[in-house]
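// run 5 | inverse folding | seed 20
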């Protein structure tokens, strides 16, 4: 009987000790920043928005934030810091819906902190879509503050092997200003855009899934509460510069006017807040009419990202309650009168 007990104890020890070592090592290194910011001398690859953003929001030192979709992932936070004297972090989510912005802002605001600037990119189609839509299924154990479910993180082989062991073996590190960069993995230029592009299929009516009632609800539920909760924070809201092929597709599906009306509604509503300014980049003709600036119909180059940064920091392209409708009316006319056939037939 004694031998059986001893064997059982040895077996349990043999099973538990490795698990304990894995959990302790994951806790110490903390590759998703659940407990602390990066340790000195550690190796951290920051490439997982869904699982690393909440830790960055809770534990990194910052006073400014970049929010939005993949339109913001190529921003260099050092450019913001150098031009504004800020300490900026990027909390982007690819294909971000308003619900995703709400999700991470709830984490940001868990503990009172001084936030000077928030740069929010609005992809208008996602704001016109159904309320409560999220881009992902979230790992809730990383977003809540319940320590009882942390074993999902501490004993996770998909965390331990690539992000703890793998990073140390490869000695890989992501500078925080380069977090989530993807530009170096994409091909930019007219020939690459057109290679991926298919002519749009024409529709008789606009897509009813996208409408202004959804937009109003999304603003009310996901964005305005955070603007109102941070009256001392300056929110810099901007519309990114999609290429003219994006608008060609939206003309074909009868959705262009809804998109433009949506931008008008967002602008009118947000300009009622003293701590919000609105920047238009969608009507930058020298950018949107040159497909060499793009990898596809929406994703623009890092050079454009850097130029947007400079203009955001210098408050260039800002619109006011007196000027925004003139800008949008002119852009709408441009979209509807543009010669898309000639644009597509230009030599590569």
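// decoded
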């Amino acid at each position: 009987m004694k031998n059986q007990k001893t064997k059982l104890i040895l077996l349990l020890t043999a099973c538990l000790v490795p698990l304990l070592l894995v959990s302790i090592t994951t806790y110490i290194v903390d590759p998703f920043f659940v407990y602390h910011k990066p340790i000195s001398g550690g190796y951290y690859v920051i490439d997982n928005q869904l699982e690393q953003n909440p830790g960055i929001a809770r534990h990194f030192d910052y006073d400014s934030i970049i929010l939005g979709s993949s339109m913001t992932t190529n921003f260099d936070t050092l450019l913001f810091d150098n031009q504004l004297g800020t300490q900026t972090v990027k909390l982007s989510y690819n294909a971000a819906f308003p619900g995703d912005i709400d999700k991470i802002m709830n984490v940001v605001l868990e503990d009172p902190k001084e936030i000077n600037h928030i740069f929010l990119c609005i992809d208008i189609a996602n704001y016109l879509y159904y309320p409560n839509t999220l881009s992902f299924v979230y790992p809730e154990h990383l977003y809540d503050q319940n320590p009882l479910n942390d074993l999902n993180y501490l004993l996770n082989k998909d965390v331990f092997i690539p992000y703890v062991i793998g990073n140390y073996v490869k000695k890989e590190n992501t500078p925080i200003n380069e977090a989530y960069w993807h530009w170096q993995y994409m091909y930019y230029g007219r020939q690459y855009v057109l290679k991926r592009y298919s002519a749009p299929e024409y529709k008789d009516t606009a897509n009813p899934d996208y409408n202004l009632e959804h937009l109003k609800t999304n603003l009310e539920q996901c964005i305005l509460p955070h603007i109102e909760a941070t009256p001392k924070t300056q929110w810099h809201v901007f519309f990114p510069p999609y290429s003219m092929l994006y608008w060609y597709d939206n003309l074909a599906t009868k959705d262009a006017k809804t998109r433009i009306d949506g931008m008008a509604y967002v602008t009118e509503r947000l300009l009622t807040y003293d701590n919000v300014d609105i920047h238009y980049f969608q009507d930058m003709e020298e950018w949107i009419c040159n497909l060499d600036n793009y990898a596809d119909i929406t994703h623009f180059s890092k050079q454009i990202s850097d130029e947007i940064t400079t203009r955001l920091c210098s408050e260039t392209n800002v619109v006011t309650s007196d000027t925004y409708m003139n800008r949008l009316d002119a852009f709408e006319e441009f979209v509807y009168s543009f010669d898309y056939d000639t644009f597509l037939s230009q030599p590569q």
